[in-house]
Structures are given as C-alpha cells and as structure tokens.
What we know:
The protein is of the alpha+beta class. It is about 50% helix and about 10% strand. It contains nine helices and six strands; from the N terminus they run βαβαββαααβααααβ. The strands form two sheets. The chain has a four-stranded mixed beta sheet with strand order 2-1-3-4. A two-stranded antiparallel ribbon has the order 5-6. Helix 1 packs antiparallel against helix 7 and helix 4 (about 90-105) crosses helix 7 (about 160-175). The radius of gyration is 17 Å and the shape is globular. It starts with a strand and ends in a 6-residue tail after the last strand. The model has no long low-confidence stretch (mean pLDDT about 95).
Amino acid sequence: xxxxxxxxxxxxxxxxxxxxxxxxxxxxxxxxxSAVIYSDSFYDDVADFGAHRTVPAVRTPEGGMLTDSLxxxxxxxxxxxxxxxxxxxxxxxxxxxxxxxxxxxxxxxxRGACPxxxxxxxxxxxPSPEVLADVARIEEVWTRAxxxxxxxxLYGDFTLADAFYAPVVTRLxxxxxxxxxxxxxxxxxxxxxxxxxxxxAEGLDEDAEVAVYDKAPLERIPFPxxx
Length: 227
C-alpha cells in the first residue's frame, strides 16, 4: 500500500504543489488523484476522497486522512526520518520548522495579490507596500538560511522548507518582484529541480485555464525559465 494524494490543477494550486513536493523529491511512493478547483463537482470529489473541501489531502497507507499541508509535511517527516525532509542539525531543523509555519500562516499580501500561475508571467505588475513588505521578509528568511547552508537549497539539500516556499519563488518570478542575486540563484535551483519541472510540464498539458487566475489587464509574458 502507498499514500494517496488529492490535488487541484497543477498550474494554479499552490497548496497542491506543496503537497506534491512533500513526496516527490524524497522518493516517497504516492498515487496522485485530481479534483478540478472551481468545477461543479469539486467538493463532491474531495468528499469522495474522504477529505473536507480543500486540497491537498492525503490518505495514509493505514487509512488515516491528512487534510492540511502542514499536517502532511509533519507526518511524512515523522514517518520517514531517514529521507531528510527536515535538516538533521537541530538548530537548522528548528529554524526550518519555524519558517515553514510562517509560510503556512503568513505572507497574506503576496499570496492575495499574486496568485500562482505556472502558465504565464505578467508585465507591469505594481506591488503594494504590503506586498513589498512580504518580499523583504522572504528575502531575509531565505538569505539567512542560504548564507548559513551555502545552498543550493535553503538548508543545503532539498527539504520541506523548499517545498513550502516553492510557490513563492514562482510568484517572485512571474510578477517581476525584486530579488537579490542570492534569491535569484535560489529561484533558479528550485525551478530547475526535476520534481518542479515535471509538475509544471504536466500542468501545461492540462486542458482548461482557470479564469480567476487571469491578471488582465496585465500583459502576459513567458514564464521565466532557466537553462
């Protein structure tokens, strides 16, 4: 038996991306199921999976149900202590848990103003002071971790901290938000990770765009990629 993961559309569901990146980079077996956000059947599909109204959701091999991304991450770190989901160093581990929780509950300005859309980027976005304050805090968090670890990911190797901040990386890139050289190098490492590349490519293959994620009248430009 393996885990089962319920997700929304890959181009848009930032929390689903976090759920997926809690499995794939660590080679934890999982069967992925999809529900279409904003469809008439979405809530019924989530209920049929055994969850309640939101994605991601995970059914454990024993039949337990995890209906929150933070619960998914903590469960997997506990169930697979040798997979490196959290840093081994106790100080780094505590910091990683703290910044994951900060992501889970905070940064509401950038999350509200800059919805994730892996199909496109946008020209001409003008961030509010609140968004720029979130960007400054993100810069502080990432720079501290990267300077200590030496990269390429926040704590050296890919951890749950990177899984939780991955959608924020895409927001910085697709809305043209300010980035230092350190953050830009981190963004490149994350968006060229095989698990992220696979997720984005599969999202582009999905048929329907979701109108609520359209930032018109901003001009669409290509999503930034790194060779």
